[in-house]
User: Which sequence fits this backbone?
């Protein structure tokens, strides 16, 4: 497996292929490198994080390759931050469940948001892990090729706890 | 690659309809369903129609067979009970280091958010670890959380791990339990039917939710035998269209079917066990995808009228029921279906039909635009 591009997004900013390219927050990165996708502001923070990381990674790819690509992402929290927010809307005396919030209580929605934005029709998968485990993530990305033939795999870790604690460590890999 | 043959060694379905795959198959064959109207359950202001476990019955089962049963959540207990039953019927040692546990769940212990239990119980991977450790298994389990398509994706993950030689046996457990969290969310989407659902029917108005746990033990095999089930093909495609609405062209599901049909002739297929949630959009989308794939004349069925949508369990339980159906030479009925309610006519029936073919395709679609499918064949090439 070959790594074509690699991005790391943390509260300290974004590092693309080893070069620190910005100090911005997730929203700052969106304004700096995308800016043309108002749906971004409807997303929860996990999706926003995955979205900006994918924007940076996919810049050098062709639409044709993207159409047959796979998106396979991992984290520990699943969608727990949004789960807690949704739980508040149905707890105690208040009861105002919102479909716009509920849909983000699924961790795999981030893979769908990336697929929609970039017209990716290949596999989208999400795995929850006990801890960050790059070896196992690479194995799972590599094993995709045993039953499918994506043009490339957009894969890696995407986890959001709060504004001071988040990490996207994602890459594009080919066989 | 160590082996290209993958077989299903053992299985279990634990649902409100029964505690074994055999019991569940019998109940479905006889047309039973546990979809009931529930009022005041989970502290919800509105009633809903769902297939729910009898909590006391499960507690009784756990007390009788699960060590230190009180230390496990309801979700974990169901996973343990289902896996235990499946493992009892084969010689696989779950503690061996060539056994990988793979979980399919959308929300796991999310009900813990509303209870006095620690919030830390909500981590899906920790639940998976507790269940794997119960069986003495020390390998880090996989947890697939791909919304409604998880049950098929977990089987695909098992197939890949087996093909790569990363394990010799994969214990695939699909499970979800309902709570105020999940039911209120589907209510807010206006996706629920107040009555038992009617997949593909003209008068369908929405889905019902359900609870189940189901387990398949998938293993690398050295040789084929006529009475065993083998993996044929699988696929996963996104619609790239909308996070909560299916594609109007059935794009992802069509691509899934097209991929699988590269490895399976149409005249080998006994039936397609489709998702059939009984929402207007899902069933219409599936009819378009099946039509585009040239499967208009192939028998299609949907089992949500018996179980509701059991989320992470659905793909596993419905695959097992499809195997049992062919074992018994039948296509299971689509309970709730009466008159064509999709643009393209499909071969759907509310009655049991006979089946002489030995392969089937299981498909699912869900939130996030995901679609997944897997095909199995009984015995060797037809």
Assistant:
């Amino acid at each position: 497996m070959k790594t074509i591009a690699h991005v790391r997004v943390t509260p300290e900013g974004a590092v693309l292929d080893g070069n620190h390219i910005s100090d911005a927050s997730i929203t700052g990165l969106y304004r700096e490198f995308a800016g043309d996708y108002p749906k971004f502001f409807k997303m929860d923070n996990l999706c926003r994080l995955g979205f900006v990381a994918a924007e940076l990674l996919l810049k050098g790819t062709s639409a044709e390759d993207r159409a047959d690509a796979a998106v396979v992402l991992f984290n520990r929290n699943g969608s727990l931050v949004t789960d807690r927010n949704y739980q508040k809307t149905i707890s105690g005396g208040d009861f105002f469940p919102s479909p716009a919030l509920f849909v983000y209580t699924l961790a795999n929605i981030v893979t769908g948001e990336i697929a929609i934005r970039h017209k990716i029709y290949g596999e989208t998968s999400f795995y929850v892990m006990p801890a960050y485990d790059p070896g196992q993530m690479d194995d799972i990305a590599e094993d995709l090729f045993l039953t499918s033939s994506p043009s490339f795999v957009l894969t890696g870790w995407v986890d959001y706890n709060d504004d001071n604690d988040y990490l996207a460590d994602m890459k594009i890999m080919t066989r | 690659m160590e082996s290209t043959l993958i077989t299903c060694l053992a299985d279990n379905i634990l649902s409100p309809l029964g505690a074994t795959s055999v019991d569940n198959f019998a109940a479905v064959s006889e047309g039973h369903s546990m979809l009931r109207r529930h009022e005041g359950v989970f502290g919800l202001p509105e009633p809903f129609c769902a297939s729910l476990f009898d909590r006391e019955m499960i507690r009784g089962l756990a007390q009788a067979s699960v060590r230190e049963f009180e230390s496990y959540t309801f979700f974990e207990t169901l996973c343990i009970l289902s896996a235990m039953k499946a493992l009892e019927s084969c010689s696989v040692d779950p503690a061996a280091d060539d056994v990988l546990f793979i979980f399919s769940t959308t929300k796991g212990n999310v009900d813990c958010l509303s209870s006095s239990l620690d919030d830390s119980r909500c981590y899906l991977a920790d639940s998976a670890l507790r269940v794997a450790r119960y069986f003495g298994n020390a390998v880090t389990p996989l947890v697939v959380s791909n919304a409604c398509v998880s049950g098929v994706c977990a089987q695909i993950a098992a197939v890949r791990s087996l093909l790569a030689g990363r394990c010799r046996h994969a214990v695939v457990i699909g499970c979800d339990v309902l709570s105020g969290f999940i039911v209120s969310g589907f209510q807010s989407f206006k996706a629920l039917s107040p009555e038992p659902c009617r997949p593909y029917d003209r008068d369908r108005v929405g889905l019902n939710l359900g609870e189940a746990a189901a387990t398949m033990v998938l293993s690398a095999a050295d040789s084929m035998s006529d009475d065993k089930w083998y993996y044929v093909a699988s696929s996963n495609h996104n619609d790239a269209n909308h996070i909560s609405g299916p594609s109007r062209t059935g794009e992802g599901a069509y691509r899934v079917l097209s991929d699988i049909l590269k490895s399976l002739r149409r005249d080998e297929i006994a039936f397609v066990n489709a998702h059939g949630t009984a929402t207007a959009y899902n069933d219409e989308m599936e009819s378009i995808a099946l039509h585009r794939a040239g499967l208009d004349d192939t028998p299609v069925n949907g089992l949500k009228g018996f179980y509701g949508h059991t989320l992470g369990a659905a793909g596993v339980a419905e695959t097992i029921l499809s195997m049992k159906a062919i074992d018994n030479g039948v296509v299971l009925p689509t309970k709730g279906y009466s008159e064509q309610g999709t643009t393209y006519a499909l071969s759907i029936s509310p009655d049991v039909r006979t089946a002489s073919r030995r392969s089937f395709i299981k498909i699912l679609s869900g939130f996030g635009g995901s679609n997944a499918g897997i095909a199995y064949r009984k015995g060797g090439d037809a």
